[in-house]
C-alpha cells in the first residue's frame, strides 16, 4: 500500500527516535524500522541517516517529510470534520518561543488554554535562537519583530513596545536626558547588545502604494557599567538607581504605572514590534493549532 510506512516515517522524523515514535504509535520499534525500510525500498530513496546516537533526515527525507506532514494533517482535519472532533480537540502541539516572552506572556496563556482543552498536549521549547521548524518538527513558532523567512505563513498576534526608563532617584542625581545625544552622559544598563533602537526623527520614507509615511529606525550605540543577559536583573538595577535601561513593556509596565520608573525620550521611542505566530506554508493548519493561535491572538491583543 502507498501509505505503508508514512506515519512511521513522520513520527521518527519529528522525534528523531525510532523508540519514541514506536511508543507514540503504540507499536514495536522493530515494526517501525521494518515499515520505514520498506518505504525507502519502495521509493528507492534513503530517507533517514541512522547512527547509534541520532536519527536525522536526508535531504530527500526532508522534502518527503514536508509533503507527508501536510497530507497527514489534512487527513486528521478530514477525520475531525466528519466526526465533529473539533468540539473536543485533542493531540500534541509542539511550539517554540523566545525565552522571556514565553515565560511571562505565552506559557501562562497556554496553561489557561489547556484548562479549557484538557485533551490537548503541548510541548514548548523556549529559546532566543531561531530554530528550524521543519527540522525540529515544530507545528508553531512565536517570533517577535521583522520576519525574514518568506517560506513561512504568519499571523500577527500582538505587539510590544520598548521603553527607555530610569528611577527617579537616578534622574534626581544625574539629570533627565532630553535627546539621544544626552545618553552619552548617562550610565546605560546593557542587555545582550551594546546598542538601542529608536525612532529616527530626521528620516521617513513614503509607501508608494498607500502614500503613508514609513518611520525609520535608528540604532544608537550606548555604554555603561552593567551588561546582563537577563531582563529581570536589568530592571532591578534600574529600580535601584544604577542607570538608564531600555526594555520591552512586559518588563517595566507595572513600575512605570507605580512611578518607580520614569519613561524617557518618548518622542524617540521606536515603532512597535509585531509578535507573530508562524508555521510552515505547506503544512495544513490543523484545528487544534488554529484554535490555539486564535486563542493567543484574542488574549494577547
In terms of topology, how is this protein built?
Layout: H1 6-15, H2 18-25, H3 29-43, E1 48-50, E2 55-57, H4 59-83, E3 91-97, H5 99-116, E4 120-126, H6 133-136, E5 140-144, E6 152-160, E7 162-166, H7 168-174, E8 188-189, E9 195-206, E10 213-221, H8 231-239, E11 244-248, H9 249-258, E12 262-264, E13 273-280, H10 287-300
Parallel strand pairs: 3-4, 3-5, 8-11
Antiparallel strand pairs: 1-2, 5-13, 6-13, 7-11, 7-12, 9-10
Helix pairs in contact: 1-2, 1-3, 1-4, 2-3, 5-10
Characterize the structure shown:
The protein is α/β, with parallel strands linked by helices. The protein has three domains: 6-68, Winged helix-like DNA-binding domain superfamily/Winged helix DNA-binding domain (Arc Repressor Mutant, subunit A), CATH 1.10.10.10; 85-159 and 274-300, 3-Layer(aba) Sandwich (D-Maltodextrin-Binding Protein, domain 2), CATH 3.40.190; 162-271, Periplasmic binding protein-like II (D-Maltodextrin-Binding Protein, domain 2, 3-Layer(aba) Sandwich). Helix content is 40%, strand content 26%. The chain has a five-stranded mixed beta sheet with strand order 4-3-5-13-6, covered by helices on one side. Strand 3, helix 5 (99-116) and strand 4 (120-126) form a beta-alpha-beta unit. It is elongated. It starts with 5 loop residues before the first helix and ends with a helix. The model is unreliable at 206-213 (pLDDT under 50).
Amino acid at each position: 500500500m502507498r501509505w505503508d510506512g508514512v506515519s512511521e516515517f513522520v513520527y521518527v522524523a519529528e522525534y528523531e527516535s525510532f523508540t519514541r515514535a514506536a511508543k507514540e504509535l503504540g507499536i514495536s520499534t522493530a515494526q517501525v524500522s521494518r515499515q520505514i525500510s520498506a518505504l525507502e525500498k519502495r521509493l528507492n530513496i534513503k530517507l533517514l541517516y541512522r547512527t547509534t546516537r541520532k536519527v536525522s533526515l536526508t535531504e530527500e527525507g526532508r522534502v518527503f517529510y514536508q509533503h507527508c506532514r501536510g497530507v497527514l494533517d489534512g487527513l486528521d482535519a478530514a477525520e475531525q470534520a466528519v466526526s465533529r472532533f473539533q468540539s473536543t480537540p485533542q493531540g500534541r502541539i509542539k511550539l517554540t518561543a523566545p525565552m522571556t516572552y514565553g515565560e511571562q506572556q505565552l506559557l501562562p496563556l497556554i496553561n489557561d488554554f489547556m484548562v479549557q482543552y484538557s485533551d490537548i498536549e503541548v510541548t514548548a521549547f523556549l529559546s532566543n535562537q531561531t530554530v528550524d521548524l521543519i527540522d525540529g518538527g515544530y507545528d508553531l513558532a512565536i517570533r517577535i519583530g521583522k520576519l525574514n523567512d518568506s517560506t513561512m505563513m504568519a499571523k500577527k498576534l500582538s505587539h510590544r513596545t520598548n521603553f527607555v526608563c530610569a528611577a527617579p532617584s537616578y534622574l534626581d542625581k544625574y539629570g533627565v536626558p532630553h535627546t539621544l545625544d544626552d545618553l552619552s552622559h548617562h550610565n546605560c544598563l546593557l542587555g545582550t547588545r551594546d546598542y538601542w533602537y529608536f525612532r529616527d526623527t530626521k528620516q521617513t520614507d513614503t509607501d508608494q502604494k498607500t502614500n503613508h509615511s514609513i518611520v525609520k529606525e535608528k540604532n544608537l550605540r550606548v555604554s555603561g557599567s552593567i551588561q546582563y543577559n537577563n531582563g529581570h536583573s536589568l530592571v532591578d538595577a534600574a529600580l535601584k538607581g544604577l542607570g538608564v535601561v531600555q526594555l520591552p513593556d512586559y518588563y517595566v509596565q507595572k513600575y512605570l504605572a507605580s512611578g518607580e520608573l520614569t519613561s524617557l525620550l518618548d518622542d524617540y521611542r521606536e515603532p512597535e514590534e509585531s509578535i507573530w505566530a508562524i508555521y510552515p506554508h505547506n503544512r495544513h493548519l490543523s484545528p487544534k493549532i488554529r484554535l490555539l493561535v486564535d486563542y493567543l491572538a484574542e488574549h494577547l491583543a
